[in-house]
Amino acid sequence: MQFLKPIIGVLIAYLLIKIGVPFLGSLHHPGTWPVVPTAVMKMYLTFIIAGAFVACTFDEEGYNALITPVVDLYSNPAKAKLRLCAVTAVSLLGCWIAYQYVKPTFDAPVELRSVHPAPPSSVTMWNKSYPLQTLKNPFRAPDKAQLAKFTEEGGVIYYQNCFYCHGDKQDGKGHFAQAFNPMPANFVDVGTIAMLTESFVFWRVGSGGPGLPSEGTPWASAMPVWNTMLSEEEVWKAILFIYDQSGVQPRVTDVVAEKK
Ligand code: HEC
Cβ–Cβ contacts within 10 Å for residue 180, how many? Predict the structure, then answer.
């Protein structure tokens, strides 16, 4: 049973990393249970397994103790049944690992991609070219009553077109949301429209997922190309509405310049 030693050693090391490290972390930050990333776990286990193998086969005696049961299993005629079981188990394990690699997953792709890629300097939609750097929302009227009216019109557009994906609470959890990966943007989250200028949002709404530049891919964005379905005015009003409802302000880039 010499060959059980390294297996037990590896198992103990695994448990130490899997439970011991998070435990130490939880002592340091009570109430938390840090997780050891799978990639780190794989790396450590590779070293531990290699180390255990080296340690156990350090001398002739240890090598033989480790290898004899294996050779015996594969050559002893009396162990035909056991051999069959072992070969089947190893093959099944191989199949299972291969299956884990190829099975479809709902996780985001691991490839690097930019959620907010740099916008083009100008974009052509509705047969017009828009310079994105200087573009402003023409419906952001200084007059409060007028702004309220445009925002309300934007609400109708939102509920007729965007609501199904971006949700009633603007949190990207509409009825269809679960069907998409990536999920529809959550406008209440500070990481979306709150950090974007209205011209950026205008570009994203107008040109949708297919309008993303290559840094934004590989990304099967379900965001529709609204310039083929809504008018320019409707898009601007819907943008007024999503800012109003989610309670965030559009990013402004040229405040300093304007003040001068
Ligand atoms: C079919 C579902 C769907 C509909 C309908 C939809 N969206 Fe989206 N939208 C998405 C998805 C998915 C994303 C995230 C991927 C991306 O950014 O392209 C997204 C992203 C966005 C973004 C980008 C936010 C960011 O942080 O970059 C904006 C803005 C947006 N949607 C506005 C709208 C507006 C306005 C409407 C209605 C006119 C609308 N969406 C309708 C699915 C949808």
Answer: 16
Q: Cis peptide before 218, with omega less than 30 degrees from 0?
A: yes
198-221 b/e (C-beta count within 10 Å ≥ 16 → b): bbbbbbbbbbbbebbeeebbebeb
CA distance 164 to 157: 12
Q: What confidence tens digit (pLDDT) does each residue in 179-210 have?
A: 888 889 999 988 889 888 999 999 999 998 88
Asked if residue 161 has its Cβ within 6 Å of ligand 1, the reply is: yes
Identity of residue 144? K
Nearest alpha-carbon partner for 203 in 130, 154, 115, 140: 130
Closest residue CA from atom 34 of ligand 1: 162
116 lines ligand 1 (CB under 6 A): yes
Q: Which two tokens stand for residue 218?
A: 């590989």
Of residues 116 and 110, the one with the higher pLDDT is 116
260 has a pLDDT exceeding 50? no
Question: To the nearest 10°, the Cα dihedral for 178, 180, 181, 183?
Answer: -70
